[in-house]
Amino acid sequence: MSSGRSQGRRRRGKKPKAVDLWRPVAPLDPPDPIRRASDATAVIRSLGSPPLKGQGVKAEQNLAVAVDKAAELAAEVLALTAGLRPEDDPDEVEAP
Predict the structure, then answer these.
(1) Contact at 8 Å (CB) between 79 and 33?
(2) How many angstroms separate the Cα of 36 from the Cα of each of 26, 46, 47?
């Protein structure tokens, strides 16, 4: 049987060295321009057909249109806000 005293003791190991969290680091590469996803409906399609009897195909089409438009708007707003629009965008509009 072991004594109760030895069970309550913890081993004291070496303390880890303190790390300077605010040390200088190498500068990051400039971010790439933000572009729209090439296939915004991939995640929706991966879920399968909507469970709507007799309206599955039409629902899929409408959902795909909505997701495409949402992805287009989201990418545009994010890129414009971050100042990361692609240079070769023919529809580029100057920000006010």
Answers:
(1) yes
(2) 29, 19, 21
CA-nearest of 60, 41, 42, 43 to 51 is: 60
Residue-wise pLDDT for 34-52, tens only, equals: 888 899 999 888 988 888 8
DSSP annotation of 68 reads: H
Which distant-in-sequence residues (6+ apart) come within 8 Å of 41 by Cβ?
63, 64, 67, 68
pLDDT digit string, tens, across residues 49-75: 888 888 888 888 999 999 999 999 999
Local confidence band at 8 (pLDDT 50, 70, 90 cut-offs): low
Distance of CA 30 to the CA centre of its chain: 18
CA distance 40 to 42: 6
HSE-up (13 A, CA, CB side) for residue 20: 4
